[in-house]
Amino acid sequence: MNSYFIFVVAVVFSITASAQQTTAPIIKEKWHWGNPNKQDTSAGYAQTLKVGDVLYLSGTVTTELSEKGVKQVYAGLERSLKQYGLTFQHVVKENLYTTDIEAMKLLNHVRKQFYKGDFPAATWVQIVRLFMPDAKLEVELIAHFPKQ
Questions:
Q1: What is the reported pTM?
Q2: What is the DSSP letter of 121?
Q3: CB-CB contact of 46 with 30 (8 Å)
Q4: Residue 23 needs a FRET pair 20 to 30 A away by CA distance; which of 38, 51, 126, 136 works?
């Protein structure tokens, strides 16, 4: 056998052995609006999920596109962040889904107040409807914990 063939066999064996090894499950820390189960089992989600130094926040919704409705959404997100000692300055990604992007553009000043000039990467998408049929806005976030 030539050395190239032996090398290829060794690499394939190594890759196969690595793929067959079981890895430890990731550690997930959840929070769901004070729910003792830390998740909603009827819809099947948790409001927040912490994995390592990343916090994922499920979408928070409102049924009205108004200053009051936008404040309600961002206040809910702020409450979720505070459960872990974080603020909007820890947010690195925002996904915003709305049934009326033009109305949301006019209300952007309300959203921006929560970030205090330190804006995350963001994606805004207009959609036909959300999970809740009467919802008009849903915002989800990803935040990072500071290095200790």
A1: 0.81
A2: E
A3: yes
A4: 38
Question: What would the pLDDT profile of 3-35 be if each residue is shown by its tens digit?
Answer: 555 544 444 455 544 545 568 899 988 888 877
DSSP state of 90: G
- Report the alpha-carbon distance of residue 43 to residue 138 in Å, rounded: 16
Render pLDDT for 57-97 as a digit per residue (tens, 0 to 9).
Answer: 999 999 999 999 999 999 999 999 999 999 999 999 999 99
Measured between alpha carbons, how far is 148 from 146 in angstroms, rounded to an integer?
Answer: 6
Rounded CA gap, 141 and 63, in Å? Answer: 19
Element (H, E) at 133: none
Q: Quick one: tokens of 145?
A: 């914990």
Phi, psi dihedrals of residue 59, rounded to the nearest 5°: -60, 140
Q: Residues 51-80, buried b or exposed e (16+ Cβ, 10 A)?
A: eeeebbbbbbbbeebeeebbbbbbebbeeb
Could you give the dihedral angle defined by the CA atoms of residues 65, 67, 70 and 72, in that order, rounded to the nearest 10 degrees?
-120
What residues contact residue 39 under an 8 Å CB cut-off, 6+ apart?
30, 32, 45, 46
Residue tagged 């928070």 (tokens):
60
